[in-house]
Structure formats: structure tokens, C-alpha cells
Write a structure and sequence with these properties.
122 residues, 4 strands, 3 helices
């Protein structure tokens, strides 16, 4: 048990499709294990403090805000029963993951619509 954190990308196909055809694809954009400060920031900033393991949809601007907060080391100290504590060494990987997610989200291709969401599990 513990805090598992996922950043997922989804491509929706906007063309007309027939029954049985693929409508969307999911992509693994990031994964963290027990990084409660990042989790606390995302939940407080983009989910109004509602920490119920729900999908939290993030725009490209939201992802950029996360990058800025990580670079500024402005993540709130967050603890929880299963969380443990952040050790402060995760930030470089965080910046890379969220920068790649912005690039992925803002890639335009015909007949596609992209979204990104964060979700935690414990």
C-alpha cells in the first residue's frame, strides 16, 4: 500500500467510427511512488482540495503551473496515512515528466483531441 500517482494522456478520435472501432487510446505519461508534496499541490490547486482518487484533468497551462511550482520548490508539505514524506530529490524528474506532457498534449494531429489527467491511488 502507498501513494501511487499517475499522469495519463488520452487521445480521442473525432472521426466517425463504427461500432467496434477504437474511440480512444490511453498513454502513460508519468508515474510517481510516494511523492506527497506533488500530490498535495495538484489536489489543492486543481481539485479544490478534494482528495478522493478521482481523475483531475489538466490543461497545458495547468501543467506549466505545476512545472513552475516544482522549479520554485513551492509544493506544500503534504502527509497522509499512506503517503510518507517527499524526500526533495524528485523535482528534476518532475520537470521532465511535465514538460514532456505539455509537448504531448499540445501536439496537433488531424481527427484527434488530446487530454491529460492526474490520478492517485492508495
Amino acid at each position: 500500500m502507498g501513494l501511487d500517482m499517475y499522469l495519463t494522456g488520452e487521445i480521442f478520435f473525432t472521426r466517425r467510427w463504427r461500432r467496434g472501432q477504437r474511440k480512444a487510446e490511453l498513454y502513460d505519461l508519468g508515474y510517481w511512488r510516494k511523492h506527497p508534496n506533488l500530490h498535495g499541490y495538484i489536489v489543492q490547486t486543481f481539485a479544490g482540495g478534494d482528495d478522493s482518487c478521482q481523475q483531475i484533468h489538466l490543461s497545458a497551462d495547468d501543467l506549466r503551473k505545476i512545472i513552475a511550482a516544482v522549479k520554485a520548490k513551492d509544493l506544500p508539505h503534504t502527509t497522509g496515512f499512506f503517503f510518507g514524506e517527499s524526500d526533495g530529490t524528485e523535482w528534476r524528474e518532475d520537470v521532465s515528466i511535465f514538460t514532456n506532457a505539455v509537448d504531448w498534449l499540445t501536439t496537433e494531429e488531424p481527427n484527434q483531441w488530446r487530454s491529460v489527467y492526474y490520478q492517485a491511488s492508495w
